[in-house]
């Protein structure tokens, strides 16, 4: 939608009006047929149509172009009232600078910055509202350290608040101790399983070594027996040699 033509001071050229909403162009685009539209207006139109709303020539989003420079200059020089005129703002400025002014306008309706407060107030009156807002917060004057809302002043009890905080801390500490306990138990179980596994591996290795030792002893005994037999054969051969 464009800018309400009633806000403008003096005559506005018809060429600077949107062909769809008939208000003064806002963020304008131009079709090949030179008809101009607000960006939001023409995009909305082309969702359901494929032609120009003025002369019915076929157009597509890709064919839309920025407004001619001289038309943009004419548009930016137009003078108009601030949108907060009904609240008392008397500012009149160019279309080119109206957005910047309205972002900072003292008569703009803005929300209260206190959480929970739904009041909309003029920017120039915000400080005064914040001073009396029932949702404003402050630190407890008795030194308990709590931040309280003005509406809760009469219900605030330092002892009760601190007792509640203590209970919360105690519960949190118990939870953390339980978590640490479970974690330690889990680690111990993991280490125990690891040690049992290692012990099983070592036991298997020991049994394998025993088996190897047994085979080696058997081989040694066989070698010793063979050596004795060889010695006996040598002695017998020596005797036979002497006899010969």
From TrEMBL:
<keyword id="KW-0479">Metal-binding</keyword>
<feature type="domain" description="RING-type">
    <location>
        <begin position="18"/>
        <end position="56"/>
    </location>
</feature>
<protein>
    <submittedName>
        <fullName>RNF41 ligase</fullName>
    </submittedName>
</protein>
<keyword id="KW-0863">Zinc-finger</keyword>
<feature type="domain" description="TRAF-type">
    <location>
        <begin position="101"/>
        <end position="144"/>
    </location>
</feature>
<dbReference type="GO" id="GO:0016874">
    <property type="term" value="F:ligase activity"/>
</dbReference>
<keyword id="KW-0175">Coiled coil</keyword>
<keyword id="KW-0862">Zinc</keyword>
<dbReference type="InterPro" id="IPR013083">
    <property type="entry name" value="Znf_RING/FYVE/PHD"/>
</dbReference>
<dbReference type="Pfam" id="PF13923">
    <property type="entry name" value="zf-C3HC4_2"/>
</dbReference>
<dbReference type="GO" id="GO:0008270">
    <property type="term" value="F:zinc ion binding"/>
</dbReference>
<dbReference type="Pfam" id="PF02176">
    <property type="entry name" value="zf-TRAF"/>
</dbReference>
<dbReference type="GO" id="GO:0043122">
    <property type="term" value="P:regulation of canonical NF-kappaB signal transduction"/>
</dbReference>
<keyword id="KW-0436">Ligase</keyword>
<feature type="zinc finger region" description="TRAF-type">
    <location>
        <begin position="101"/>
        <end position="144"/>
    </location>
</feature>
<dbReference type="InterPro" id="IPR001293">
    <property type="entry name" value="Znf_TRAF"/>
</dbReference>
<feature type="coiled-coil region">
    <location>
        <begin position="199"/>
        <end position="226"/>
    </location>
</feature>
<dbReference type="InterPro" id="IPR001841">
    <property type="entry name" value="Znf_RING"/>
</dbReference>
<dbReference type="InterPro" id="IPR017907">
    <property type="entry name" value="Znf_RING_CS"/>
</dbReference>
């Amino acid at each position: 939608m464009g800018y309400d033509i009633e806000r403008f001071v003096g005559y506005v050229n018809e060429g600077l009006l949107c062909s769809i909403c008939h208000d003064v162009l806002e963020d304008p685009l131009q079709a090949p047929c030179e008809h101009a539209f607000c960006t939001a207006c023409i995009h909305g139109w082309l969702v359901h149509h494929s032609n120009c709303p003025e002369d019915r020539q076929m157009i597509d989003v890709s064919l839309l172009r920025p407004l001619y420079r001289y038309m943009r200059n004419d548009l930016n020089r137009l003078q108009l009232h601030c949108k907060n005129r009904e609240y008392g703002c008397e500012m009149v400025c160019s279309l080119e600078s109206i957005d910047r002014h309205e972002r900072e306008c003292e008569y703009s309706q803005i929300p209260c910055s206190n959480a929970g407060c739904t009041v909309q107030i003029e920017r120039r009156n915000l400080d005064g509202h914040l001073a009396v807002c029932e949702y404003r917060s402050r630190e407890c004057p008795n030194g308990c350290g709590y931040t309280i809302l003005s509406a809760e002043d009469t219900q605030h009890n330092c002892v009760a608040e601190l007792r509640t905080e203590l209970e919360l801390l105690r519960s949190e500490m118990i939870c953390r101790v339980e978590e640490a306990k479970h974690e330690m138990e889990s680690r111990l179980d993991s280490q125990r399983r690891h040690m049992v596994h290692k012990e099983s591996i070592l036991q298997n290795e020991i049994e394998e070594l025993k088996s190897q030792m047994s085979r080696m002893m058997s081989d040694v005994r066989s070698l010793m027996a063979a050596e004795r037999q060889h010695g006996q054969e040598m002695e017998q051969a020596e005797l036979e040699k002497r006899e010969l």
